[in-house]
TrEMBL record, chain A:
<dbReference type="GO" id="GO:0140662">
    <property type="term" value="F:ATP-dependent protein folding chaperone"/>
</dbReference>
<dbReference type="InterPro" id="IPR053374">
    <property type="entry name" value="TCP-1_chaperonin"/>
</dbReference>
<keyword id="KW-0547">Nucleotide-binding</keyword>
<comment type="subunit">
    <text>Heterooligomeric complex of about 850 to 900 kDa that forms two stacked rings, 12 to 16 nm in diameter.</text>
</comment>
<comment type="function">
    <text>Molecular chaperone; assists the folding of proteins upon ATP hydrolysis. Known to play a role, in vitro, in the folding of actin and tubulin.</text>
</comment>
<keyword id="KW-0143">Chaperone</keyword>
<dbReference type="GO" id="GO:0016887">
    <property type="term" value="F:ATP hydrolysis activity"/>
</dbReference>
<protein>
    <recommendedName>
        <fullName>CCT-beta</fullName>
    </recommendedName>
</protein>
<dbReference type="InterPro" id="IPR002194">
    <property type="entry name" value="Chaperonin_TCP-1_CS"/>
</dbReference>
UniProtKB/TrEMBL annotation, chain B:
<dbReference type="InterPro" id="IPR002194">
    <property type="entry name" value="Chaperonin_TCP-1_CS"/>
</dbReference>
<dbReference type="GO" id="GO:0140662">
    <property type="term" value="F:ATP-dependent protein folding chaperone"/>
</dbReference>
<protein>
    <recommendedName>
        <fullName>T-complex protein 1 subunit epsilon</fullName>
    </recommendedName>
</protein>
<dbReference type="GO" id="GO:0016887">
    <property type="term" value="F:ATP hydrolysis activity"/>
</dbReference>
<dbReference type="InterPro" id="IPR017998">
    <property type="entry name" value="Chaperone_TCP-1"/>
</dbReference>
<dbReference type="GO" id="GO:0005832">
    <property type="term" value="C:chaperonin-containing T-complex"/>
</dbReference>
<dbReference type="InterPro" id="IPR054827">
    <property type="entry name" value="thermosome_alpha"/>
</dbReference>
<dbReference type="InterPro" id="IPR012718">
    <property type="entry name" value="Chap_CCT_epsi"/>
</dbReference>
<keyword id="KW-0067">ATP-binding</keyword>
Length: 536, 535
């Protein structure tokens, strides 16, 4: 019904809903803030973890995940609120782009919207709020870039920086007690890549058992497969042939082929031909003179035996990933046809030693002294699979941050320093801006300052007092001050060695403000009628 | 449903399943139709102009999109009312024809219908109303052409084009970077434009999206970007002076369309067949290699063996390239699309300066860039942004900007935005109304009121008082004889749109007024709606 009392015809489908103006805005704010509040408690070194439990039949309690990683938490949540979905989306993008700061980005966007809501209540038009935020964002970004420092990639300082960054990233995770150990481990792994950003070369193997401390970095490459029975378990100076070919039986690839025989003799003949064909293939492989044969697919007993008889160590069923890694590490070419044995020198991979090793209960194959020495393996040990999964995610975060740092080289101080600096820059700017936008700029500063505040709160410290002291300390010109989360004081980040990667901060700032703006601009939410699903 | 009775008082059944249908006719039908259409226009109204707001749309599967683009909004709203659907089509045809102004056209139609409603209440026949609207529309269009100005698109480093693109981008979420994005769009269009024929083939501009980074990282690649990587992980990642073989047949043994069976009955045949199969692969690769190609792009898949043979022959290859990409590459590099291996000849190869693989972010996503193509300069705009929704919206916005620039290249006449053109037309129509001596006079006058609705709506969205600002602008237009006075949406202190440099294309404005009038006429002609009752 409209105001006059005319009955409005129904325009949208039956179950579709349309919310306008204040209602729509309220709905987005509530949703986005709820999501931000949910992950808020995981922020910082004293943040807590979440248990994620899947719903649905048949998997109660079997696949629970314990994690501190914002992206993982948000990804596994099922939300219906459209604004909440936007927050989850930016967290995912942050994960893909830089790998860390996934919680920060969601929390920052949430805090911005919380401040935005207050401004709307003061009857400031959303477009004015957005205009202010845009100014604030540019100012904050400029300050962030100004305070960052850069060291030469080969210098000792840069190396120290990397260790500090890794420590900072890991300090909010489960392995915080062993962060020095793992930071060192991650830095070594990343430095082996020599500037390449291909994380494929760093393999992470998780094996339950032992303690977290038993984890180690192996300079070789470890394949989680077994050497076929009857082959040598230790090969020195190995020549490796990596193949992706059918070694069960060669199916005929020509379309529409059928084998039709009219007598038992013929069956035997065909079988012999089939065997002959396989033998022929093996012979061709042998011409390459490898000492180790790795195949992606299954190898049947017959060819396996033929190969083993010739003294070749056979590794079957290496999946795509494993095969590509072996190929990359040893410098081998992945073969599918075997008609050019003269290229043997080019296509075979080399490594000094291949041996079967036992880690915990499991047998694995270790390749040491590979031709391309970039590959390495991190073996993680821990009391349970849940712990291992979380350690894996933490290590992954740290590796991503380190790789980003190696590319970008610029670093900023951690411990809330960069956020406080940006907030200060926004406040200075707000004093110069005429018009209502100034409120929004101040709001932006408050939202930024919420990040260190939440970190304090999560640590159980008096955030109001600490943040005020922090502000004063910065005002005095102490550029390196930050939160000391072990003592609950304002400390010197240089002495504490808390550093963060500029790129991560930049990306978080930009993604959060973009998302907040996107949500702020909405004045109408149309939900289409949900698709009817057939009940199974 | 009205019933007819025969002499004995039994009802006639006129329509099939009459009982289950609902029928509206006469004034009731007019009003219901108009109200439904107006509901859509009302939804879009707040998206109009630089300070317009966005709509959040949740699809039946729960996917969220946020947009400001009229055509996208009405499309994703999943409207079911039959008359309201006409407005959806209206917006879409504006999108297809012009590409920009999709919100404006719906809002104008809504304003016209609003006026029609009051005229109907006065007892004026719908056909008289539509006649009046028609005549008014002609007057408005004529006046638009009079006030339109030709601009020099070449002057000052294509400044005019950039300004027009900025106007189109001004209302979108990416407006903070409108200048940069506008420049990208202008460069992209000029790169592929045929200025002598005044034509732009928009197929040559590919818009590729990739989440991550921010909108600032959006850039123009003077080449083609395809979201694929080399078929074999060890193929070389960069090819310079590429000679491209563009295939639409798989690297697999042939698969005839006719259903057939090959029966093997003895071992000899079996071996022969195997030989034959091996030969296929060798021949295929040889044919490609012999033609002098140094990269093969294929629309289909590769067999493992063929894939390796390609690697062994130092022939990088890409599989599963999409059909549109294949065509684009063909156009840009001058390659002929080759459907059979036997037909590969050196002349059919395309040429490009370089082809290389680029990587994004921490996850292992790679894309191929084909640069310095031989024939036309196909370009790709790579859009980055914090999330999928931003990237999608940026894509729609850039598409709008590109369309505006294309329209300007085709026809370099512009009118000024900010509601000034509509106001000028409204004044002209109003003047004409007095010359009309029949009932249509009222309709013509209402048409003028509806046109005024656009600037008033703009003013409303910008937080200005619509009545005062429109009245001011109107009186200044009359007293200064300046059709460029509009609404100062951006708070820049001047209402002269020439000074604000708000450019809109004449073709878009004309199309808006014509299309809106047509749809309104169509709605006004409906006097009977018969529909299933569950509506």
């Amino acid at each position: 019904m409209d105001i006059v009392g005319n009955v409005l015809p129904q325009v949208l489908k039956d179950e579709a809903t349309e919310d306008k103006g204040e209602m729509a805005r309220l709905q987005s704010f509530v949703g986005a803030i709820a999501v931000a509040d949910l992950v808020k408690t995981t922020l910082g070194p004293k943040g807590m973890d979440k248990i994620l439990k899947p719903t649905g039949p048949g998997q109660e309690m079997t696949h629970i995940t314990v994690t501190n990683d914002g992206a993982t938490i948000l990804k596994s949540m099922y939300v219906e609120n459209p604004a909440a979905k936007i927050l989850i989306e930016i967290s995912k993008t942050q994960d893909e782009e830089v790998g860390d700061g996934t919680t920060t980005v969601a929390v920052l966007a949430g805090e911005l919207l919380r401040e935005g809501e207050k401004l709307i209540q003061k009857r400031i038009h959303p477009q004015h709020v957005i205009a202010g935020w845009r100014i604030a964002r540019d100012v904050a970004l400029k300050r962030l870039r100004d305070i960052s420092t850069e060291n030469d990639i080969n210098s000792q300082e840069f190396h120290d920086d990397l260790v500090k960054i890794a420590r900072t990233t890991l300090s909010s995770k489960l392995i915080t007690t062993d962060r020095d150990y793992f930071a060192d481990l991650c830095v070594k792994a990343v430095l082996r890549l020599k500037g390449s950003s291909n994380l494929d070369y760093i393999q992470i193997i998780k094996l339950p058992g032992g303690t977290i401390r038993d984890s180690y970095l192996d300079d070789g490459f470890i394949l989680k497969k077994q050497i076929t029975i009857g082959c040598k378990r230790r090969i020195e100076n190995a020549k490796i042939l990596v193949a992706n070919t059918a070694m069960d039986y060669d199916k005929i690839k020509i379309y529409g082929t059928k084998v039709k025989v009219n007598s038992m003799d013929k069956v035997a003949e065909i079988e012999a031909a089939e065997k002959e064909k396989m033998k022929h293939k093996v012979d061709k492989i042998l011409k390459y003179q490898p000492t180790v044969f790795v195949n992606r697919q299954l190898i049947y007993n017959y060819p396996e035996q033929l190969l083993a008889d010739s003294g070749i160590t056979v590794i079957e069923h290496a999946d795509f990933e494993g095969m590509e890694r072996v190929a990359a590490a040893t410098g081998a070419e992945i073969l599918s046809t075997f008609d050019a044995p003269e290229r043997s020198q080019q296509v075979l991979g080399h490594c000094d030693l291949i041996e079967e090793i036992m880690i915990g209960e499991e047998k694995m194959i270790k390749f040491t002294g590979c031709k391309k020495n970039e590959a390495c393996t991190i073996v993680l040990r821990g009391a349970s699979t849940h712990i291992l999964d979380e350690v894996d995610r933490s290590i992954h975060d740290a590796l991503c941050v380190l790789i980003t740092t190696v590319k970008n080289k610029r670093v900023v101080w951690g411990g809330g320093n960069s956020e406080m600096q940006m907030a200060a820059a926004c406040e200075e700017e707000a004093k110069k801006v005429q018009g209502k936008q100034a409120f929004a700029i101040e709001a932006f500063a408050r939202a930024l300052r919420q990040i260190p505040t939440i970190i304090c709160d999560n640590g159980g410290y008096d955030s109001a007092e600490l943040i005020q002291n922090f502000k004063v300390e910065l005002q005095k010109g102490n550029q390196t001050c930050g939160l000391n989360m072990t003592d609950g004081t304002i400390g010197n980040m240089n002495e504490l060695g808390v550093k963060e990667c500029l790129r991560v901060k930049e990306q978080a700032l930009m993604a959060a403000s973009e998302a907040a703006e996107l949500i702020m601009r909405v004045d109408n939410i149309v939900k289409c009628a949900p698709r009817k699903r057939e009940r199974a | 449903m009205s019933l007819a009775f025969d002499d004995y008082g039994r009802p006639y059944i006129i329509l099939r399943d009459q009982g289950q249908k609902k029928r509206m006719k006469g004034l009731e039908a007019y009003k219901s139709n108009i109200l439904a259409a107006k509901a859509i226009a009302n939804t879009l109204q707040s998206s109009l102009g630089p300070k317009g707001m966005d709509k959040m749309l949740v699809s039946p599967d729960g996917d969220v999109s946020v947009t400001n683009d009229g055509a996208t909004i009405v499309e994703k709203m999943e409207i079911q009312h039959p008359t309201a659907k006409l407005l959806v089509e209206l917006s879409q045809s504006q999108d297809a024809e012009i590409g920009d102004g999709t919100t404006g056209v719906v809002v104008l139609a809504g304003k016209l219908l609003e006026q029609a409603l009051t005229l109907l209440d006065k007892g004026i026949h719908p056909l008289k109303i539509s006649d009046g609207f028609d005549r008014a529309c002609d007057v408005a269009i004529k006046h638009l052409e009079q006030i339109a100005e030709e601009i020099d698109i070449q002057a000052n480093d294509h400044e005019a084009l950039i300004q027009a693109a900025c106007t189109a981008l001004g209302s979108k979420v990416v407006s903070k970077r409108k200048r940069e994005l506008g420049k990208i769009a202008v460069t992209a269009v000029l790169d592929v434009a045929d200025l002598t024929r005044k034509d732009v083939n928009l197929d040559l501009i590919k818009i590729q999206t990739k989440t991550g980074g921010s909108v600032e990282d959006t850039r123009l690649i003077s080449g083609i970007l395809i979201d694929k990587d080399m078929s074999h992980p060890q193929m070389q990642k960069e090819v310079t002076d590429a000679k491209i073989c563009l295939l639409t047949c798989p690297f697999e043994p042939p698969k005839p369309k006719t259903k057939h069976n090959i029966n093997i009955s003895n071992a000899e045949d079996y071996n022969k067949l195997y030989q034959q199969e091996q030969q296929y692969f060798i021949d295929m690769v040889k044919l490609v290699k012999n033609s002098g190609a140094n990269i093969a792009l294929c629309q289909w898949g590769f067999d493992d063996e063929a894939n390796h043979l390609l690697l062994q022959n130092d022939l990088p290859a890409v599989r599963w390239v999409s059909g549109t990409d294949v065509e684009l590459i063909a156009m840009a590099t001058g390659a002929r699309i080759i459907p059979r291996f036997q037909e590969i000849t050196p002349e059919k190869l395309g040429k490009a300066g370089s082809i290389k693989e680029v990587q994004f972010g921490t996850s292992n996503e790679r894309m191929l860039v084909i640069e310095n193509c031989q024939c036309t300069k196909a370009v790709t705009i790579l859009i980055r942004g914090g999330s999928q929704m931003i990237v999608d919206e940026a894509k729609r916005s850039i598409h709008d900007a590109i369309c505006v620039i294309r329209n300007l290249i085709k026809d370099n006449r512009i009118v000024y935005g900010g509601g000034s053109a509509e106001l000028a037309c409204a004044l002209q129509v109003l003047q004409y109304a007095d010359e009309v001596s029949s009932v249509e006079q009222y309709a013509v006058r209402s048409f003028a009121d509806a046109l005024e609705g656009i600037p008033s709506c703009l003013a409303d969205n910008c937080g200005l008082n619509p009545i005062t600002s429109v009245a001011q602008a109107k009186s200044r237009q009359l007293s200064e004889k300046n059709p460029r006075i509009g609404i100062d949406c951006m708070d820049l202190g001047t209402t002269d749109m020439k000074e604000q440099r708000i450019y809109e294309t004449l073709s878009s404005k004309k199309q808006q007024i014509q299309l809106a009038t047509q749809v309104v006429k169509m709605i006004l002609k409906i006097d009977d709606v018969i529909a299933p009752d569950d509506y």
